Automatic annotation (TrEMBL):
Pfam families: HSP20 (PF00011). Residues 40-154 form the SHSP domain. The keyword Cytoplasm applies. Keywords: Cytoplasm, Stress response. This is 17.8 kDa CLASS I HEAT SHOCK PROTEIN-LIKE. InterPro entries: A-crystallin/Hsp20_dom (IPR002068), HSP20-like_chaperone (IPR008978), Small_HSP (IPR031107).
């Protein structure tokens, strides 16, 4: 009978998969885990953005709860780079406040995306509703090359 290491026994397996148990699978990696990142830097890591492509456009959606549209900048940088940045302010603290848990992030965030060649840079639109920023980048129609092309022989 083979010996099973103690960390594979039923008790530890139950703890690892317990949804209420705080487990950080990245704690031994060289980059900082979310529990080690200072509060003012955590918004950068937690800003989630979806990018989908439709037949007409590239659509970016960013969850930015609690941020006003005036606090967000959408810019196009050198050579077709879409940049979304902003800052979520830290809540003012009172000396009499006693914090029990801090999970909402604050600080600056910045995300960049290299846009494809078919993006119409001059027609980008952005809007914000219910804490979701939507950036729509229309696409140019890509002309398909003819299936056959005759090459002249010299």
């Amino acid at each position: 009978m083979a010996m099973i290491p103690s960390f594979f026994n039923n008790r530890s397996r139950d703890i690892i998969f317990d949804p209420l148990f705080s487990f950080d699978p990245f704690k031994d990696f060289p980059f900082p885990s979310s529990s080690l990142v200072p509060r003012e830097n955590s918004a950068f890591i937690n800003t989630r953005i979806d990018w989908k492509e439709t037949p007409e456009a590239h659509v970016f959606k960013a969850d930015l709860p609690g941020i006003k549209k005036e606090e967000v900048k959408v810019e196009i940088e050198d050579d077709r780079v879409l940049q979304i940045r902003g800052e979520r302010s830290v809540e003012k603290e009172d000396k009499n406040d006693r914090w029990h848990r801090v999970e909402r992030s604050s600080g600056k965030f910045l995300r960049r995306f290299k846009l494809p060649e078919n993006a119409k840079i001059d027609q980008i639109k952005a809007g914000m509703e219910n804490g979701v920023l939507t950036v729509t980048v229309p696409k140019e129609e890509v002309k398909k090359a003819d299936a056959k092309k005759t090459v002249e022989i010299s």
